[in-house]
Specification:
α1 crosses α7 and α3 packs parallel to α4. The longest helix is centred in the middle third of the chain and has 26 residues. Helix content is about 45%, strand content about 15%. It is built from 7 helices and 6 strands; from the N terminus they run βαβαβαβαβαβαα. The radius of gyration is 17 Å and the shape is globular. A 6-stranded parallel β-sheet has the order 3-2-1-4-5-6, sandwiched between helices. By secondary structure, it is an alpha/beta fold. Belongs to the short-chain dehydrogenases/reductases (SDR) family.
């Protein structure tokens, strides 16, 4: 973790956002900062610092963790640091994803396929076991589905690995119905992100839902006054 560690107010729970540097992840981190102390995880330091500036300007607080979610040792260190400092978290929003370029299945690049597996699937194998103890029985884990991608033309790498990620989340959700934590899989509306611009060039972006609006809508379905 970086030196930019702040102690949340006594009445503010802690929220962990993995993939917080841009798009929906950044919007969720900013929205959560109004009610939570946010631990923001991403590889891009500059984008995290910009997010932190916006959070502080709005009166919130954040801890920046410029880390790669595919590195088990780094994630273990982060989760241990969270436990030592705060004892746990109230919410985990996982938006980190690798979006490989569109290509026919017969032309999938080996490096893109490997990176998609590493980020979208393999990382789940250590993130869920590491974060689950921090959530305890009462925390909430959020995952974000993209049901249009699996099986769609040219989406082989991203679609297949995103489907696998969500499959693991669904298994965890089924396993914890009675014991907690609460595991929810949400489906965001199309947003004008840089990734979507690559996937759907020429699309009317004015018709898409802004990331901050979508973050607010999604969080309204899961946050309660008790948090």
């Amino acid at each position: 973790m970086t030196d930019q560690i702040q102690t949340p107010a006594a009445d503010r729970p802690v929220a962990l956002v993995t993939g917080a540097s841009r798009g929906l992840g950044a919007a969720l981190a900013y929205a959560l900062s109004h009610s939570h102390h946010v631990v923001a995880v991403a590889r891009t330091v500059g984008a995290l610092e910009e997010l932190d500036d916006r959070i502080q300007a709005a009166g919130g607080s954040a801890t920046l963790a410029p880390m790669d979610v595919t590195k088990p040792d780094a994630m273990a260190q982060l989760c241990r640091s969270i436990y030592d400092r705060w004892g746990g978290i109230a919410l985990w929003a996982h938006t980190a994803v690798h979006t490989a370029p569109l290509t026919p299945a017969s032309h999938v690049d080996a490096k893109d396929w490997s990176k998609s597996l590493e980020t979208n699937v393999t990382a789940m194998g250590h993130l869920v076991p590491y974060v689950a103890p921090l959530l305890g029985r009462t925390g909430t884990a959020l995952f974000f589905d993209d049901p249009a991608a699996p099986g769609a033309k040219f989406f082989a790498s991203y679609g297949a690995t995103k489907a696998a990620q969500i499959a693991m989340a669904r298994s965890w959700a089924a396993e914890t119905v009675r014991t907690g934590p609460r595991v929810q899989i949400l489906t965001p509306r199309p947003m004008p992100t840089a990734v979507r611009a690559r996937f759907y060039p020429g699309e009317d972006r004015a018709a898409l839902t802004p990331c901050p609006d979508e973050a607010a809508r999604l969080l309204a379905t899961v946050l309660t006054p008790a948090t």
